[in-house]
Amino acid sequence: MGNKKRYRFATEVIHAAQEPHKWNGATTTPVFQTASYVHETAENLSDTFSGKKADFIYSRLSNPTNTVLEKKLCMLEGGQGAVVMSSGMSAITNTCMALLRAGDEFVSGNSLFMSTYLLFTSVFKKYDINAKLVPTNDLDELEKNITAKTRFIYMETIGNPGMDIPDLKKISEIAHRYGLPLIVDNTIATPYLCKPIEIGADVVIHSTTKFLSGHGNAPGGVVIDSGSFDWNQERFPDFKPFIERKGDLALLDKIWREHHINFGTTQAPFHSYLTMTGLETFVLRMERQLENAMSVANYLKDRPEVEWVNYPGLSDHPSHESGKKQFSGKGFGAMLTFGLKDQKTCFDMINNLELIYHLANLGDCKTLIIHPWSSQYVSFTDEVKLQLGIKPGLIRLSVGIEHIKDITNDLGCAISKTD
Ligand SMILES: Cc1ncc(COP(=O)(O)O)c(C=O)c1O
């Protein structure tokens, strides 16, 4: 995207796609708070609708503030094109729907964010779509589940809240051997730690609500297309018109044209503005959050009341080597889970906290905590919860940028007061 000089990641995250000279010198991208765009001639609007000209028509379709964020995120992930959407779930739903037809199948790692899990196993069933969930790193099982009806492979770089890290290189090799794209949700690892496209993924998805915006104030999502997958295959006959229109970016065009603009999953330009403001401190936040997360994991590991800690930064974690091999060497994510005796102990501990926010979100610069068994997963049967590794004594923590001693003191005091 663009021929501008490329800088290091920490610089690009601030400057990529920014063009102050176009905006009367404004140093932040303006919020184009408009539903529609005037065209001076009938010919111009007609040419824009037909795709002969690139221009803005209506903000459900595209918006100049959103376009800047799209270019920026695309550069950060090393893609060729991107579309921002109203939430991470919009990005996941639109991408999957663009790829799937009734009767199709796909194979996914089973370590999934709760709504993604419900979308795959429940919502898609209504459309006769079969999501085959396999253990994230069981490559034999993954390969065995590929059939003529399979349309893609799906993984999370760090499972939420399973904390497992798939071997994306090996998985992409299997996917490509069968002519399938690999889609990766990179929300928890972020491009600061992992760039799935460089490893072999074809599409990257984010909930920008989390670490990328970083302040818990801007729901959003993005789909980034590597532009490197060949859609011109027998398995994808429905891609023909999109290949003719957009070539390598056929999938992104299909996602945008068939689903995003018709489902109306538009990103509010103000949310893009907030996300870009958040991105300016992304690298600094990540440095601190990764360091804090490692310290919190070590602190909790040594507390006698804590039965276990699930954090890939710990050297005995089953995904530690996978993270070391595929990540940038700067850490293992800022989210972890840990175990207390039972639900009552978890409730007591959460109710004793003074600093840490108790809420359903992650990736904020504040430390956040939740008891998934009784909240996000409350409508799931115990059997399914246990299959997904959600236990009554499990607590999920998203570690923020506060002073480490204040985080560990708050956790420590709250744990001490439980019986
Ligand atoms: C890994 C992952 N993917 C996707 C989502 C969905 O994002 P959003 O809440 O922005 O729709 C979440 C939300 O927590 C998530 O953790």
Helix content: 25-40%
Small molecules bound: pyridoxal-5'-phosphate
Whole-angstrom Rg: 22 Å
Q: Which consecutive residue ranges, at least 5 long each, have pLDDT under 50?
A: none
According to CATH, what is the class of the largest domain?
Alpha Beta
CATH superfamily of the largest domain: Type I PLP-dependent aspartate aminotransferase-like (Major domain)
Termini, distance in Å? 57 Å
Number of strands: 12
Structural summary, described in words:
- It contains 17 helices and twelve strands.
- It is of the alpha/beta class.
- The protein has two domains: 9-279, Aspartate Aminotransferase, domain 2 (3-Layer(aba) Sandwich); 285-416, Alpha-Beta Complex (Aspartate Aminotransferase, domain 1), CATH 3.90.1150.
- Helix 10 (240-246) packs across helix 11 (250-263) and helix 13 (282-301) packs parallel to helix 17 (404-416).
- The longest helix has 20 residues, at 282-301.
- It is globular.
- The protein starts with 8 loop residues before the first helix and ends with a helix.
- 47% of the residues are buried.
- Bound molecules: pyridoxal-5'-phosphate.
- Pyridoxal-5'-phosphate is lined by residues 87-89, 113, 115-116, 156, 160, 185, 187-188, 207, 209, 219, 221.
- Pyridoxal-5'-phosphate (PLP) is lined by residues 87-89, 113, 115-116, 156, 160, 185, 187-188, 207, 209, 219, 221.
